[in-house]
Amino acid sequence: MDQYRIAVIGAGPSGLYAAAALLASKQPVSVEVLDRLPAPYGLVRYGVAPDHVKMKSVIRVLQKPFDPAQVEFLGGVRVGEGGIPLEELRKHFHAVVHATGSSVDRDLGVPGEELAGSLGSGAFVSWYSGHPDFHGLAPVLEHPGVAVVGAGNVALDVARVLAKTADEMALTDIPAPVLEILRGSAVTDIHVLIRRGPQHVRFTPAELRQIGDVGNADVLVHDDGLLAAGVDEPEDKRQKQNLAMLTEWAANEPTGRPRRIHLRFLRSPVRLVGENGRVSGVVVERNRIDAGRVVGTGEEETLDVGLVVRAIGYDAEPIPGLPFDAATGTVPNEGGRVVQGGVPVAGSYVTGWIKRGPTGVIGTNKGDATETVAALLEDLPELPVPPHPEPESLRKALAEYGVQPVDWTGWLRLDAEEVRRGGVRDAERVKVATMAEMLEHAREA
Ligand SMILES: Cc1cc2nc3c(=O)[nH]c(=O)nc-3n(C[C@H](O)[C@H](O)[C@H](O)COP(=O)(O)OP(=O)(O)OC[C@H]3O[C@@H](n4cnc5c(N)ncnc54)[C@H](O)[C@@H]3O)c2cc1C
Ligand SMILES: NC(=O)c1ccc[n+]([C@@H]2O[C@H](COP(=O)([O-])OP(=O)(O)OC[C@H]3O[C@@H](n4cnc5c(N)ncnc54)[C@H](OP(=O)(O)O)[C@@H]3O)[C@@H](O)[C@H]2O)c1
Q1: Label partner for 339 (CA 20 to 30 A): which of 106, 165, 236, 243?
Q2: Residue 82: pLDDT band by 50, 70, 90 thresholds?
Q3: C-beta of residue 272 within 8 angstroms of C-beta of residue 279
Q4: Exposure class string for 360-387: b at 16+ Cβ within 10 A, else e
Q5: Distances from the Cα of 152 to the Cα of 248, 364, 439, angstroms
């Protein structure tokens, strides 16, 4: 029986669920998972908030195919620009599953967004999560005011991390330089700018509840009396729970806690103002909702802030050589099969955020990957035979591109160093956050 060689690009949840599903199929497949970073797990490692320790334990499930060495990990291998070209990779595999996620910050498109102190949540979250591309970001937290734009769970993560004490954050995996900046933080007021009403938020109730549980901050609701007047009861169960919580909090008064999280409804940033090239304020406009649409009223106020983090969703980077729909930030596909002009591109598949857009929790990617793998397995007998399917061929090609992959054992060495650092701080781990150090620990004999 022929052995089919499959590459999964991206070791985030969707890629690793796809690898697991391929193995579970018991078909004659060999699977290699490539990631541009020397560490696996994608946003579980670099997105899920550091204080969500329980959530991060999903890595025990995601790592399973590597433990018995059934799947090969090739870390530090970027596919596309600056790495190995996709067309080269395709020479070695019968099929490629693209699972590269959506990591590009969206812009608000308002004046002043280019100022220092204006950041996307992708950058800000990556920084506190110890992503090696962002370790130099070092946001300035010297101003008491911060604005966080958006009404999704990422906005809540950012607000919560800024509101907690540095001692609380020391128990997480954040790198030492991040902890130092949080320790020196002058932030007292975190303004969450929500363009619609309390009945429209995209928070999950568990996440919303957590900001109410932050002992270091009061949560204050600014809703122009909307909740007291009564809003239409949402049909969705989660929105109902959110609304009940927000209605209760609307009666909150400041209790003198060191920090405050202000939930400001029906407010949109219309421009960022600056001094000496840095954000010094954000002008917000009051909105009204007209037949479900957000409409500005022209009524403006300026909030005194030194940092604006926009948590308004993500875009994906196009994958050179594959079709891309810029409007949705996804690769056009039918059930995971990449399609161009309605025709499947032989041997090309997508899963996760690059397939369906930047929404959904970790578990959503499991069913998504199962669908993609089912399509791939159905196509297995028809897959084009690559010119170099022999096991060592990719290694040789990578060497020609100057790429020296980090294997699973290398990752485990880096992992052990992080766990060691965690022990010193009473945390499960402390991240190694520069590429040079990551490679040094992964490669040491
Ligand atoms: C800030 C944030 C917090 C979140 N918190 C939670 C939470 O608490 N709970 C929850 O259930 N969900 C959470 N989510 C959602 C969850 O993280 C996503 O559903 C999930 O990570 C999407 O998986 P993915 O595999 O599609 O993408 P990703 O997790 O982004 O993985 C993509 C992988 O591809 C790699 N890659 C990218 N480009 C290349 C390339 N060119 N070559 C090689 N490799 C490449 C990346 O390094 C990365 O490892 C959060 C999302 C965000 C943004
Ligand atoms: N603990 C967890 O389970 C967890 C944690 C983090 C993330 N996640 C998941 O990861 C996914 C991504 O989360 P996310 O928070 O990035 O995205 P999201 O849930 O899609 O929320 C994005 C928010 O940005 C707002 N927005 C978009 N454009 C805007 C603009 N121009 N001006 C003002 N506001 C704007 C949206 O408002 P409108 O609603 O008005 O469009 C929405 O509230 C979600 O599925 C989320 O549930 C889960």
Answers
A1: 106
A2: confident
A3: yes
A4: eebebbbebbbbbbebbbebbeebeebe
A5: 20, 16, 34
Helices (H), 25-117: 42-46, 53-56, 59-62, 86-90
Mutate to test the pocket of ligand 2, among 107, 361, 362, 365 (most ligand atoms within 8 A of CB): 361
3-class secondary-structure state, position 17: helix
Share above pLDDT 70 across residues of the chain, in percent, rounded to a whole number: 100
Please tell me the class of the 106-313 domain: alpha beta
The yes-or-no verdict on residue 445 having pLDDT over 70 is no
- Percentage, residues of the chain above pLDDT 90: 94
Burial class (CB in 10 A: 0-12, 13-18, 19+), 347: buried
d(CA 266, CA 375): 44
Residue pLDDT, tens place only, 65-79? 998 889 999 999 999
Dump pLDDT digits (tens) for 123-153. 999 999 999 999 999 999 999 999 999 999 9
Ligand 1: which atom is nearest the Cα of residue 13? 25
Which one of 43, 103, 104, 161 would you pick to mutate in the ligand 1 pocket, going by the greatest count of ligand atoms within 8 A of its CB? 43
Interior angle at CA 17, CA 5 and CA 77, nearest 5: 55
d(CA 382, CA 389): 15
CB 127 within 8 A of CB 137: yes
Q: Which ligand is nearest to the CA of 358?
A: 2
Neighbour tally for 440: CB within 10 Å: 14
Contact call for residues 149 and 310 (beta carbons, < 8 A): yes
With a Cβ cut-off of 6 Å, ligand 2 is lined by 108, 149-155, 157, 195-196, 200, 202, 204, 207, 268, 311-313, 358-361
Pairing of strands 29-35, 4-9: parallel
Q: Does domain 4-103+316-405 have CATH number 3.30.1330.40?
A: no
Structure token pair of residue 107? 């812009």
Please check the confidence at residue 1 and state whether its pLDDT lies above 60: no
Q: pLDDT, tens digit, for every residue of 2-11?
A: 799 999 999 9
